[in-house]
Amino acid sequence: MTTEQSPVAHLTLLGSNNPTDYPTEYDPAVLESFDNAHPGQSYMVELECPEFTSLCPKTSQPDFANVTIRYVPDQKLVESKSLKLYLFSFRNKGEFHENCINTIAKDLYALMQPKWIEVRGDFMPRGGISINPVARLGDLQAMKEWFRD
After folding, report:
1. pTM of this prediction?
2. C-alpha to C-alpha distance for 113 and 132, rounded to whole angstroms
């Protein structure tokens, strides 16, 4: 048996036997990452949150969205339970759709420094209009290579 520390020993949320503490305020500090086991391999990770909720900053009415996160990792990946709790932290945050999506993209980019990241929010219509912002960060030229058709 090896005496090396597990590469995921620093993760505090995944597999915890303690009850999950859901954030009630926006909190990017809840995000955790882990080392990419395949840093030389170019591959894309897609994560989807079909139950994203935030609040309208003017009316405080809830806004619902399907948030899709796609990225090509470099050295780090986001841990999914921490991502769930992070996205949940928007539940009481009063922000416009565009700001939520840009904030998510910037926070995840800062956490992982992926080769590129795209975050898309498909918000449910309000007043007959859907707003679907997309934020992209990183090497956008390399991103285009993934979507040549």
Report:
1. 0.86
2. 24
